[in-house]
Amino acid sequence: MIVRVSQSINLCLSFIAAVTLALSAHGSSLESAWKSDLLLLGESRLRVLFWEIYDASFYATNGVYDPEKPFALSLTYLREFSGSDIAQRSVDEIRSQGFSDESVLASWMVQLDAIFPDVVGGDQITGISQPSEGTRFFLNGTLIGTITDQNLSRRFFDIWLSKKTSEPGMRESLLGIDKE
Length: 180
Fold this sequence. Notes:
single chain; 180 residues; alpha+beta; Chalcone isomerase; 2 domains; six-stranded antiparallel sheet; 6 strands; 43% helix
């Protein structure tokens, strides 16, 4: 009798653990984080000299960019990069836009380095900004990390969206700005 009760308890605990795992996995998927009102605003490809680096797609609430509303940026890599290189390049771009507090940049480097994995051609990293909550990053649809620091989140997306970007043509394409 005690063995059967113990087996029943173990079975029940296993079921609860499985349900908890399934729910947490569902909450960490890109599909569950994606807002239905995020619409494609623009796309662009980053090329450096003769190398193709990534394809970028920018999505904004109702197709209109407002930094105070949710938006998303997806980068589909066309070649291999280490996560540390992605983090370092991000910090270098933030620095080149005029942010110069090296202790804060060092802290941000640690955060970004912990989030970004190594990528190969075809891998997609998507950042979804929800200004009141922070930014969640996904690799091929699976949550890989979150930034709750609003300043880092804003400056990270400024790499592509700020007028100070190193790639103004890409910014215009992502934001759907006509170059008349």
